[in-house]
Amino acid sequence: MAQTETEPRRDDLGVLPAGAWTEDPEASEITFRTRTMFGLLGVRGSFESHRGDLVVDHEGNASGQLEIDAGSVRTGIEKRDAHLASDDFFDAAGHPRVQFRLNGVQPAPGGGSTLEGELEIREVKIPVRTPLQVEQLDPDRIRLTTEIPVDHRKAGLGWHKPGMVSGTIPVRAVIVLARQSVPQG
């Protein structure tokens, strides 16, 4: 089947297009899901405010960052959102940003890509190495999709009452980036 201009193209080679890229926050999302109350209740949430950038040179070397406003956590219950932003969890007043620093994107064995970087929450740095899906939406827009497992305790998120908060929480990032420029050379 031939690919049309409107269909995303999956990049199975692990190569990001060269250029300077900026996140389109309206087309991007950062979400999480967890189980609480002894695994009986599911909680879904998102971070509503974030911004990122990516630079890829002609050799495929990639670097970038994603900053998330820790106080923008939303789960649909205001009281819970305020608790998550408090010093029991993210401490948005003392640590207003959760940051991800991209160190590189490597081709994965068997196809696809592997994202390598560091997630920083409340000054705790967590190394990240996880699969990354790269889609070329058009010549000047790409979509990066990944899921990062975040260990609640290792991330220094405090407040861990047995049976109330999952130990590891999958955070899914779908980041759409628009090309700002193409590197020379």
Descriptive account of the structure:
With 185 residues, the chain is mainly β. The chain has a single domain, classed as Lipid/polyisoprenoid-binding, YceI-like (Lipocalin), CATH 2.40.128.110. The protein contains 1 helix and 12 strands; from the N terminus they run βββββββαβββββ. The protein has an 8-stranded antiparallel β-barrel with strand order 2-5-6-8-9-10-11-12. Strand 8 and strand 9 form a beta hairpin. It is elongated. The termini are far apart.
Outline the fold blueprint.
Layout (H helix, E strand, L loop, with lengths): L8 E2 L8 E5 L5 E8 L4 E7 L2 E7 L5 E8 L3 E2 L3 H8 L11 E11 L5 E9 L2 E15 L2 E11 L16 E14 L4
Antiparallel strand pairs: 1-10, 2-5, 2-12, 3-4, 3-12, 4-7, 5-6, 6-8, 8-9, 9-10, 10-11, 11-12
Report a brief summary of the structure.
With 185 residues, the chain is mostly beta strands. The protein is built from one helix and twelve strands. 25% of the residues are buried.
